[in-house]
Amino acid sequence: MSLKSSLVRAAKAKNFPTGYEQVVEGQKYSAYVKEILDKSVLISVGAWSVGGIIPKSEDTQYQIGQSIFVKVKTCNPEGKRYFANHLRPKPKETKDSEKPDKSEQPKAKKPRVGDGKVIESAEVGEKVNMAVTKVDNLSVFCKAEGYFGLVHATQMVDAKDMKYGTALPTFGALGDLAVGSDIEAKIVKVPERDASKVEAETKKNKEAQTKLILTAKPSLMKDNASKEKVAASRVTWQSLQVGVEVVAGITEVKDDGVWMEVGPEIRGKV
């Protein structure tokens, strides 16, 4: 089971191999990154167990879980391996006659990401609409006027809907969330701000910023979700208990174990 839209589309198009015998040489596939090595990248073009290799490119920053497009070069079903090439989109060429004359165009003020996004009430449980400013591994940073926000990937799925081996939503150069796109979430926590810092920012004519901890879990995005339930969804070191199941995202794979995150800056190893 996967939440990645690229893999869902591949499955619907019947282009989702579940075994090496289904991998076709010369075929293009939607794939995702499983592990990053020194000179190569381990990928899968379908089920997690159907792994292959692409050469590592110096001009591409790969991330675990990143969606990419590949073309299979060779496949050895008996040896359970295949080699593929990463397909990158070609830049669109513009004819000289189609290029705008910059000398005749007035310089417009470049809009900032988050301009026009207004939060009426910054309280726990309130639904907000913000603009994505940065995607970094398992964290999505967003902004509205006067506010910064953070949504962790583990806060975008419900634990009850996860099965063994299910992929978390992942965000890379080819991910579904892009800088400037909208993200809807609910406020989990509003950290208290130092009044002196707010006053200093105001004197310097700077926009006072409040950092919001957010969730986008489907069950909590419903209108009937209580504020208490939304607030309790936040995973902290204090809330972790032995035996409690939590959603985790893999951040690093090493010889001695796998590092993962269950929340912002809350890491562990298995």
What does it look like?
It is a single chain. The chain is mostly beta strands and 270 residues long. The chain has 3 helices and 13 strands, in the order αβββββββββαβαβββ. The strands form 3 sheets. It has a 5-stranded antiparallel β-sheet. A hairpin with a 2-residue loop joins β6 and β7. The two termini are 22 Å apart. Residues 170-174 have low confidence and may be disordered.
Short characterization:
The chain has 270 residues and is mostly beta strands. The chain has three helices and 13 strands. The strands form three sheets. Strands 3-2-1-4-5 form a five-stranded antiparallel sheet.
Write out key terms for the chains shown.
270 residues; mainly beta; five-stranded mixed β-barrel; 13 strands; globular
